[in-house]
Specification:
The chain has 14 helices and two strands, in the order E-H-H-H-H-H-H-E-H-H-H-H-H-H-H-H. It has about 375 residues and is mostly helical. The protein has two domains: about 5-180, no CATH class; about 185-330 and about 340-355, no CATH class. It is flat. The relative contact order is 0.09.
């Protein structure tokens, strides 16, 4: 069984880390100002600025992107709840670790920046990691103060608070990691963030059909036929995802070039060539127009190829739908009673897939550039 570790919503994690760093650094500035204002009035009492609380809370408040309707409540909870571990006489760094756990759990649960709340697994994993890494950040801050920055000055506070905020933010990384036992399913889930439009809907549909079919197959008793059937389903789903990726790549390539602009440039070059009397200059402009005309033909060929890929993606998803229908009304023990029956179904689905994925020869010929159109053909 292949394992796949998937990193989800990478941009969100990177953005959260930068915001947490900014929050920690800003809190360091406020801490330095507070020390400067406080000490002249009460020289005997020294303000205690605990980075395990202030840096973590500032980082959490800056990094959190609350779910709709939870903004005020989440920020209030992030400010109040992490202070409770410091009310008890617990040895250092246990209060700081518990405060980091609380802040990370709240951010992962209701401040993850997505439409849904975080899962219990993600919340627990992030809380545990932040609880471990926050004391490490405090240790690094103490080492920096002792060896390089000095104690309780502006640079020391800004760097120290930012360091604690950084380690706390890294502790939220487990909420973005998902361990899959099925690499095909992991690939389908990863496509959800990269595709757009109807291609994304088809890829999601293919993933759902694959999961339904595989669930039905795994209910069968173990046999060689069942393993073969799983392999056929994985191949069908992988081909669907490959078609979706190829379609997305072609779409991005075509979207980067506007065919109408190229055509306008061709017409403009031809008009200039017609107005010029010099033979050499006219010939150069005609060659430039011809080159752009070939580019138009290439874009046209890519557009037709994208349409074929989209049609093939539709056909592949329909094939997965047929595979799902094949399991309707069929009990697992009936197929599993004889492994040959599962093998026969696998061969039948494989045959359907081979028939649907064979591209006709005339279609491939269309990818070659055709002669230039009347608008771009050079005059003899």
């Amino acid at each position: 069984m292949a394992l796949s570790l998937q990193f989800l919503h990478r941009e969100e994690f990177e953005s959260r880390t930068f915001r947490a760093l900014g929050g920690g650094a800003c809190m360091g500035i406020f801490a330095a100002l507070a020390l400067r204002v406080w000490e002249p009035f009460t020289p005997i009492v020294r303000l205690t600025l605990e980075p395990g609380y202030f840096a973590v809370v500032a980082a959490a408040l800056a990094a959190a992107r609350p779910l709709k309707g939870y903004g005020l409540g989440l920020r209030a909870a992030l400010t109040v709840l992490p202070v409770f571990p410091f009310l008890f006489s617990a040895p250092h760094p246990l209060p700081q670790s518990l405060a980091a756990c609380i802040a990370a759990a709240l951010v992962t649960w209701l401040g993850n920046g997505r439409e849904a709340a975080g899962t219990s697994t993600a919340v627990a994993a992030s809380a545990a990691a932040a609880g471990i890494l926050a004391p490490v950040g405090l240790y690094v801050q103490q080492v920096l103060d002792a060896r390089f920055l000095g104690d309780m000055n502006l640079v020391s506070l800004v760097v120290g608070f930012a360091c604690v905020a950084l380690f706390w933010s890294i502790g939220t990384l487990p909420s973005h990691l998902v361990l899959h036992t099925d690499t095909v399913e992991a690939r389908g889930l990863a496509l959800g963030d990269s595709l757009k439009g109807e291609a994304q809907e088809l890829a999601a549909r293919a993933l759902g059909l694959y999961q339904q079919c595989k669930t039905a197959v795994l209910r069968m008793p173990a046999s060689t036929g069942r393993q073969e059937l799983v392999g056929v389903l994985e191949k069908m789903a992988s081909e669907s995802f490959s078609l979706a990726e190829a379609h997305a790549a072609l779409t991005a390539q075509l979207d980067s070039v506007v065919a109408h602009d190229v055509d306008a440039q061709v017409k403009e070059l031809r008009a200039r060539a017609a107005a010029i009397q010099d033979t050499i200059a006219r010939r150069q402009l005609e060659l430039a127009a011809s080159s752009l005309g070939e580019e138009l033909n290439h874009l046209d060929a890519l557009s037709r190829k994208r349409e074929r890929l989209f049609a093939q993606l539709h056909a592949q998803v329909a094939l997965l739908e047929r595979a799902r229908v094949s399991f309707i009304g069929v009990q697992g023990h009936e197929l599993g009673s004889k492994g040959e029956q599962a093998a026969q179904l696998a061969r039948r689905l494989k045959g359907l897939g081979d028939d649907s994925t064979q591209p006709p020869a005339p279609e491939d010929a269309q990818d070659t550039p055709r002669p230039t159109s009347e608008a771009t053909r050079l005059r003899s």
